[in-house]
Amino acid sequence: MSRKFNRIVRLSEVDIPSFSNVDGLDAIQVESISDNTNTSENSIAVYIKGPLPSNKENLQLLTSTIVPGYCCIIVDNPRVAMNEFIAFIALKVGFTQDYTDSILPSSVKIGKNVVIEHNVEIGEGTIIEHNVVIHSGTRIGRNCLIRTHSSIGGGGYNYIKDNQYLVKQIDLGGVWLGDNVEIGSNTCVVRGLVDDTVIMNNVKVDNLVHIAHDCFIDEDAYIIAKSELSGYVKIGKRTRIAPGSCIKQRLTIGDDVIVGLGSIVLKNVSSGCTVFGSPARKIN
């Protein structure tokens, strides 16, 4: 998945500090920004470490060193450069809109003091209770229940270091909720950095839960009160996360897993396992 611009951009026109000493930009054109785990053609992505993108077709990597076999744009701080690049595109070019703003279906019920931003889609039969905020880039499916004081699609707690200062990282992604999803009161579902945070059909999320950017929760999973999923966590089908549990970033929890009460999960969990404790250990 990628975030497309309103038009193709030649990098020589991108007037940002990180590109001031980079040569050869006039020959490079891109039309989107990608996450480096899910790249597309004619796109630009940040690469720091870890697995390399499998799709190299006209892909430009913002890196601090040359990566053999890839087209690289060498900058001092790739994350800072991407932040500057996103800000430039947003101001001068714009990004395409995922959802067409339209009148909500008559079967959607909206409580008092609800904020629904532009670029939002809400399916038939969904109920939005009082004081909910639904941010731009959010898709909510049919027959969902969004409980009081929840926030769907807000920005995450993502910071990058620029010299001695911390700089807020710009979020481009959105939130995608399937059908028959419940989001509890005072729960936050954070938008993805580039791709969407995804919650599939029939997932039930309790009160006071935090779901960070780019998480993926598969069908029929249960996320119970005061649990926290860090960025890029994947939760399998029918998995149950008990109250007060925390899951480290970029972990995968398989299908039919039980994560016990108050567990701190620091490693991937295979399907069918029950884990418990701090750190969480297999108990079946």
From TrEMBL:
Which CDD domains is this protein grouped with? LbH_LpxD (cd03352)
GO terms for cellular component: membrane
- InterPro entries, per this entry? Hexapep, Hexapep_transf_CS, LpxD, Trimer_LpxA-like_sf
Q: Report the record's Gene Ontology biological process terms.
A: lipid A biosynthetic process
> Cross-referenced SUPFAM superfamilies, in alphabetical order?
Trimeric LpxA-like enzymes
Keyword Lipid biosynthesis: yes or no? yes
Q: Does the keyword Hydrolase apply?
A: no
Sorted UniProt keywords: Acyltransferase, Lipid A biosynthesis, Lipid biosynthesis, Lipid metabolism, Repeat, Transferase
Q: Give the protein's recorded name.
A: UDP-3-O-(3-hydroxymyristoyl)glucosamine N-acyltransferase
Q: Which organism is it from?
A: Shewanella colwelliana (Alteromonas colwelliana)
